[in-house]
Amino acid sequence: MRKSLEDMGCNRLLKALASTLTILMLLTGCFNNGNLPAAGNEAAAVLNDTQAEQVEPTEQIKKIEPAEETEAPAVRQEINIKSVLCGRPTGQLTVHDLKLKYEQESTEVLMSLYNVKQNESFTFSFKADMSGIPAEDIISVHTDRKALTHSQIKANIYFQDSGSTVVVEPFLELLDRDGVFDSIWGNASAYYIRVNYDLESQTPLKLAKPVITPFTVKSQVPAPELDYVIDGSGSLKLTWKPVKGADGYKIYSVYSESMHSKINGAEEGYEDVFPSPQATVQTTEYDLTHSSNQRLDSLQNLLNPFGYYVTAYKGDQESNFGNMISIAELADRLPLALADPYGSYDKLSELPKKMSVQFLDESVADRDVIYNMDKNKIINDSKVEYRIKGTELKGSFLIFEVTEAEYKAFVTSHSRKDPNTGMAKPQSSRTWVAPPEVPTIIGGGKAGGSSGAGLDLVSRQRLNTKQQAAEGDEQLVPEPEILRKIGLNVNSAAEEYLARNMVEGKKEFSLLAFPELQSKEVLVDYLTKVIYQNPQILGVATYYYDYNSVTLHLEYNDSSHELKRKQKEISAEAQRIVQAIIHNGMSAAQKNMAIYAYLKDKTLYDDAASAAAQDSKGPFDAEINDAFTTYGIMVKKKGVCMSYASSYKMLADLAGLETIVVTGTLEGTPHAWIKVKIGSEWLNIDPTNGLTNTGIPYLLYNANDDTAAGLEYVQDDMFWLDKELGSFEGVTETYDYYVKNGLEVHSAADFTTKLQKLLKRNEPVISVRVKPEINEAELKQLTAHILGSSSGTANYGYGYNNYFVIWRAP
To answer: Judging by DSSP bridges, how do beta strands 681-685 and 669-678 pair with one another?
Structure first.
């Protein structure tokens, strides 16, 4: 239901006052540098892509550079995280109310045009005479939704009849398969028409933010959506969901001029990309690593930095190309060979803990060596077989002398527990590509009526978008009770709309009001951010977007009744914990330590759930599903990394801390952890892997990004909107637990001095971070000497990576 006339009048008055205040701030320099409201704003931070910029004054015949309008800012953007509480449910909250809250009543995004003809032309009618401006500066065509200069493609753009009508037609086919280029759009998965000037202005007016019209070209066979898997051994495989009715699939490779240059995909307008057929398969995967059927112990991923596409075919019909997988972008994750091969050693104690591995991009990194503990081979054959963790690389060492005692010590020192991981990411249950039967204009009947009669395709879509969005704005929005106590972490009307529906457990809801969410790339970006940053959202298992109904469909691991029951328990327990561990006068650092300590002391890692996650992507049985949500750690006190991260996030929100959940991998396995804001930086905390679960105190606590990367933490782009990921950098070492407490070791002498002091504390576990790494045998000898006669009451060695740990008997 719309606001009353009285309310609308108040809104206009408030907006007028706000405009006056903005002018005053600009004149006095008191403006919140950038695109986000200052900390404390009720609406938190409003995102760039849903907020128009200041419009420049009317201009005549001014050439513009279209690329810079949507380019990301060069300076790191300041992000303010605030959990916003919602009021008592009224049953009358609409999408329009959300847009008013974030000052997002209008949109500069049009709904997509689907399945247009290969030779489709688009007409744009301006109210102004645009003839003094080059047509290519008014409108351009791109292959990436950001529509920056490097994604621009050649198109025929010209004035028709008068200076107020601009026509856009295809020039030459993109991604040709037969070597004959025609004047058609070609086989790219999507195109984006960028309009840089206001269509409604009576004089040429450059837009502060261009209007983007997406469109796809009709194909009789849907294109598969390509993905990839790098498994636990570092091997690469292409994967895709099956296309209904397809007879099979064709794999195409594209080559680069340089062996080390990036393949030019959608973001570069497919420049100099010529697909070449490589294979035809009937399955929905293609193993790139072993496509030559060669498995060499000393080499793997014998690939060139090419790009790959997959099409579907049915009879003599073949789909368009979908998205591309570029090997160059994955090269730093694909192991190639051992960088420094080793031969033989005198003693077992001299064997390396790590070996240097060269990756496909020629970078080198140390990786753990895992030894075969076969007693017969080691003692009788003087041979120790090994493999490199996270790779298929393997080999063996010759040992000149081995005793029974040395063998036992070797087994003990190499039997350590790996760090804990465990995520079950929500999965798309269908391909995201619009099928051929989807109409060009969704809801076209409205725009095709009397109000749209005689209009060109683009004008009809503009009218249609306006009508559809207005209809969507009237929809009621869920008002879950839990949001009165546990606030939402959202930065726009679109995010809050998604969050409210998923907290409520809605299985389907319309996206009519948000044309920007009707793009697969944008929707996945927003959807995953909202899921990971809002711990009240429980157990989203699968999702898919229905183009015909403009509806998002979701499946949850629990019924709506169960979700609400669990949310109520989570809320009550979270508030109880915060009241017990957070006290008045605490600093942010003390609050973080209190939350970390609580999770360390009161919860346990769920090994059974982790094992199940590695064997299957889920869904699992109800008992295991809880281990992957906030309910596991918060209520049951047992879960995996996703539960730890979301529980930490919820407690931090209630304590008034600025944190985000980060997703990615740890040693190549899906993992989640936390970043906390300290000053202007975002530092890493892993609440899963500490003393209780790994035997190493504060494995990752207030660590910068370099330290995290050295421990093989690699973040992905699923936890936040892509364009803002660079805002969460962490550089300083000042607050790192091991640096701040003087627990970093730089030499054998430094180790001796530190250990002698640490032993006086009578702590059961002593851990130091060795930097740079020192020979383990030397550290063990020093430790045994310092411990003296009590050496039998302690175990010691590398607990993980370069953490040397001493576990003392109670």
So the answer is: antiparallel
